[in-house]
Amino acid sequence: MLTRTPLVRTTLLAALVVGMAACGTPAPTGSGGGSSSPLTVGISVSLTGDFSNTGKAAQLGYQLWADQVNAKGGILGRKVQLSFADDASSPTQVVTNYQNFITRDKVDLVFGPYSSLLTLAAAKVANRYGYSFVEGAGNGPSVFAAHLPNLIDAGPATAINGAQVWGDYILSLPQSQRPKTAAYPSLDDPFSAPTADALQKRFEAAGIQTVYSATYPAETTSLGGVIAKVASTNPDMVVSGSQDADGWAQVQAMIQQKFNPRFLFMTNGPENPVDFPKNVGLPNTEGVFTSDVWTYSAPIPGNQAFVKAYLAKYGGAPGDIDSTSAETYAVGQLIEAVAAKTGKIDNQTIISTLHQGSYQTVVGEISVDQYGAPKGTQFLEEWIGGKLTIVYPGNIAEHAPVVPKPTWP
Amino acid sequence: MHLLIQAIILGVLTGGLYALMTSGLTLTFGTMRIINMAQGVFVVVGAYIAFTLFNYLHIDPFLSILISTPLMFGLGVTLQTFLLRPIRYDAHRLSLLMTWAMAIGIEGILSIFYGTDFRGIITSYQNTSVTVLGYQFPLVRVLAFALSVAVLIGMWLLLSRTKFGRAVRAVSQRESAAKLLGVNTDRTAALAFGVGAATAGAAGAMFGLVSSFDPASHYDLIGRLLAICVLGGLGSNAGAITGAVLLALSESLVQAEFSPAWSSLPFYILLVIVLIARPQGLFGVRSRGAI
Amino acid sequence: MRQRLLERRGILIGAAVIVLLALFPLSGAQSWIVNIGIFTLMYAALGSAWNLIGGYTGYVSLGSVAFFGLGAYSLALTFQHVGVGDGFLPFALVPVIGIAVALISLPLGFIAFRTRGLPFIIVTISLVIILQYCALNLTAVTGGAPGLQVPQAPFPPGTYEEYFYWAMLTVFAVTLLACAYVKRSRLGLMMFAVREDEDKARGLGVATAVPKFAAFAGSAAFSAMAGAVWAYYLTTVYPQFAFDGEFLAMGIILVAYLGGIGTLWGPFVGALILTPAQQYFAYSLGGNQFYLVAYAAVFVAVMLFLPRGVVTTIGDRALRRHRRRISALEENGRQAEAVGDVAATG
Asked: In a mutagenesis test of the B interface, which of A184, A223, A229, A275 is the best target, namely the one with the most B β-carbons within 10 Å?
């Protein structure tokens, strides 16, 4: 022990030197903001870990936008340069990534991370340095409750408002056709459960009786028990606050238990035109409702061009495009809109401009309130004839809603 | 009442699968005195192998386990030989980190090859269920349960009737004595780790049939499997099976009768009670001071 | 006499390192470096706290994270329900949280210490899982899945990170001091006795419960303090991150192993090597999925080639060299004596 002490010191010093040297490598000088220097943008995405499902799709959307903008000569003559970092689905890493983007690499702009739970921690770092924070992933109530002045959600609707389209539709039905009873099984996360909750309150106020309402934790691998309980209450309508895999599991359990509600609405899951039919079987999709901000066939200005460009760059079929890619593409479009409107591109301008007016993107018309919450709503989709079809509101509907839901084949 | 029985049916069917997943963990604990944190990821690898064989070669998962289990056995033996054997002098502690490193390394490799989307093995009989007396028996779960039971019986035969089984039992009872009796303990450990991985491979095919998975699915799995092991008693097969069925049953019952949010809690309460009253687990034997 | 001198030298060196670390943010280091410094010190503190139980008593615990999470939630909840003001006041809360969590840890320790060895590890993992469950489901208290928000401290940008850095440094320094004290005390001897052979120690009349619970509670207190500072810095507390039984739990142990478990400075050295590298690579690998594989490779390399840690390995090597030099000197001396003898007789 005694002989070891000076050695510990040597090790310490060596480690200190190594550590500091590793940290202290000179940072590349930030672009001063001159009109010819590139417009650098830092984005953290979850490519590994628990939230890595959408990270890649987010990257594709951003990259497509940057390529297109650069082909047109950039923003105000400045080429867009994106740099991505992996946050490994960790809040500690996401803070480091935005710190590094802002104070080390001195990027011009940052965009939101692609993990909803990481949005707030990252947005607060950006806020500290006066950076605008346009994001497409965090639209749960807790994000806007933080009252951040720099945050702007690029989706056209908050999670809660988005799904209200289902409420609008059901309550537009004559009393005799409305469901009398409803069940609300939902995933316990910051988006799904509050969304199902809001719908429940609205339906209860309209006289639809709640026969079941419960949240299940994210790690629930088998939803058989939940659906068994739902089936035993035999509701006319099931409103599932689902995310993705859990939504498929709910449908599978319903089929297996031969339980067929007259109305089935799921907040998330069925909006994926590839994975949903793949995982529940195409014939079983018939009559399932969901709401969404984007689909490849949505009659939104610029959407067709986006789909075409996406397929030209990445290949595949239109149905393969994840709506996350469209949302990140829309983040870029907002930045473009600010530059076009003001002739300037800096954080303060982005913040002040985007908080007023509304902007057309591939995911629809976007306008936000003072805390960045979008004011719009989503559209209602239903699986009809093996195809995801917009059915409500009427002005953009491709088909009238088909109710009641046919029995499982 | 109907709901209660339906929930029990679903719970028992799921429990069988958990038992199979846990059996490999029990075996490696018994022979090598290590906690294999990679058991969850082995299950996920098994699911991906079955997924690949089903989607590209259209081999049914129940058949493809004939391909995947030998592959997983080989993977297990390789990993044991190159990564675990060198640290056997302090396996007790070092293996925890080493098997954890295997788990995240394999997760990383899977996400490079398969991406991080959720996958599922969707067969033609995916949503079929058999109705008996008004109760629903989902076919995939019944088959997965049957296969799990079959593999568990096979494991039991392997351990009780073969030379390898005798070696495993000898090593797990007293390693030094087993060595003196001429048992090649290194070889036994490698084989046991391989068999553990192989059972995970079979369980993975079933897991892929009954639920969706992504490379990160192993985090949830391993937590459950470890808890099952402790409840049943580390190293005890009967304990693993009992623990697995108790976990799945209590989850299913609480989900259906009470609230899905708290579905795992009764299991954990039971776990705490068992630990206070009988720290070695339900079926564990308190033989050695080392445990 | 010589022992005391050396001890004093050790204290002086330790104090010098802490002072150097404290001066570091003032040396013109940019915010992003200080930010990495905060997480490095967090891992150093957590690793040292883990060392107290895992290194000194030999009880490998994954429960540090449970107490880290309790600390984080305690801070966020105090903000929510009591209102502790902003700015520096919440830092004053950190030691209180440490003591409170230490008290909470005692009954939990009672359950965990029913087991030993491998079952103990799994029981401590279960503890993390159970607490995460509670955080998710006791919505009325913890806010459930949407987590809790802590108001951002009103420090100006540029120096914002520095306050958290010093707070985390204080937590680390206190942890280190406690470890150093324990190591030299009777309590430390009892802990080592438990590690070597608990049954024999008990047979010899050592009240083994005392060192075990002291290590468990101490470890809990320091982990909770680190968690509280972390929560205030990040401003968001979610169940799956506060009670992260995966990366955080394993990261803590890896840091301790890399540095050398059971050594005083090991966890610090481990954190100093690992945390900046990890944070930096996840950032700079440019968003591809190789990060996880690289991280796993580091684990494997440490386990295979440096299982006893940097501090221990270097220490041993130096010790061997030292011994060689001494024996060489003795050899020379003996030869010289022999020559002298010959000369005298001749």
From this structure: A229
